[in-house]
Amino acid sequence: MEVVPLGSAAEIAAVAADVVEAVVRRKPAAVLGLATGSSPLPAYRELIRRSRTGVGPSYKAVTCFNLDEYVGLPPGHEQSYRATIARELTDGLSIRPDQVNGPDPSLDGLPSAGERYEALIAQAGGVDVQFLGIGSDGHLAFNEPGSSLASRTRIKTLTAQTRKDNARFFGSPDEVPNHVLTQGLGTILEARHLLVIATGEGKADAVAASVEGPLSASCPASVLQLHPHVTVLLDPAAASRLDRLGYYREVYAAKPAWQGL
Fold first, then answer.
1. Angstrom distance (rounded) from CA 215 to CA 106
2. Which residue, of 84, 119, 170, 200, has the fewest CB within 10 Å?
3. Which residues are tagged catalytic?
4. Strand order in 68-71's β-sheet?
5. Is residue 77 exposed (0-12), middle (13-18) or buried (19+ Cβ within 10 Å)?
């Protein structure tokens, strides 16, 4: 795991965009794993800005896989994660809708939706770089505390607190679906490069537990410690409770330029 303390969300966005662009330039048919939420938004905007100014790579051959999808929303609902990713990133990069995949929330196919999504990812050759955020309680995707560290794509019940937290997108908690399909922790760990973004003091305890704490289902993001290629991009507030913060800064500052992330 490489922990990279940076000065601001804007700096994080630039570094994250550099990572994605390097992958796509090296492998035009790269497979990108996309996350919703506030953490990756600055990076998404930076990728779109570069693309629109002509300095970014072409994304015409990429394939994308979303981390999760609500169950029970009508097709095309503006708060579905497929619609959200299109609005926040893929439309801006001129990535066609048929290049973007998500778990299938159709009610008649739910029993096999997880297995089918896993097979689709495998058929694409696996994810090259996966965007991730960390929840304030240490969750990854919708793998809440207590989730198996070997879990696979599956249906999960949203807690009342999660539905309350997401109500800002819907108008009221009653409008938020009760269930979601989400990639499991074991699924996420199969991506070749995990690009984790955390900003703000509200994430500081979860970041410290994930990076420096014990491996535990009580902090699902601690499973990141098992992956051979994880980059954790942090602003000063999110990094503020790390015991080895000085070490991470020193190591990153002395990193050979050719090595990259």
1. 35
2. 119
3. 68, 137, 139, 144
4. 68-71, 179-182, 154-157
5. middle
pLDDT digits (tens, 9 = 90+) for 57-91: 999 999 999 999 999 998 889 999 999 999 999 99
Tokens (6 digits) for 19: 């990572």
Q: Is beta strand 179-182 parallel, antiparallel or unpaired with respect to 68-71? A: antiparallel
Q: Is residue 152 part of a domain?
A: yes
- Six token digits for residue 239: 């990094």
Locate tokens 């051979």: which residue? Answer: 228
Is 259 among the domain residues? no
Model pLDDT for residues 180-213, shown as the tens digit of each residue? 999 999 999 999 999 999 999 999 999 999 999 9
Is residue 260 one of the residues assigned to a domain?
Answer: no
Question: Are the CB atoms for 243 and 208 separated by under 8 Å?
Answer: yes
**111: in domain:** yes
Number of domains in the chain: 1
Q: Which domain holds residue 81?
A: 2-253
Cα separation, 197 vs 185, in Å, equals 17
- Please give the model's pTM, rounded to 2 decimal places: 0.96
Percentage of the chain exceeding pLDDT 90: 91
Residue with tokens 């930076």, as numbered in its chain: 46
CATH of the domain at 217: 3.40.50.1360
